[in-house]
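thought: fold this chain, then report.
action: predict
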Amino acid sequence: PTHSPFGNPIPGLAELGDAGAVDDANLVGLDTVAGPESRRVTVRRIGEPLQDDHELMGTLSRAGVRPGQVIKVRVSEGGVMVGSGMEYAELDPTRASHVFVSAG
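observation:
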């Protein structure tokens, strides 16, 4: 594997000659892509600050916020609304900044 279950690159693979490293330069936090209109983005990584919050991780999982999944995002009263299908979760801007996505 080249990435953790949370989408984070496993450190040190480049030193071992792994050519499959993914360029994370174009990733942005949900807090920066959320706008008043719903937008589709692809989840790429969930940052370490969120991984220890098991209740939040369960909520995100139910809302479809997992690496590789396309979700909808928009600004909400409490910060950022994210989800797919019928399940959504609201994140404050600080937490939303630790969910890294690519557009499209």
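thought: worth noting. The chain has a mean pLDDT of 85.
final: tokens above.
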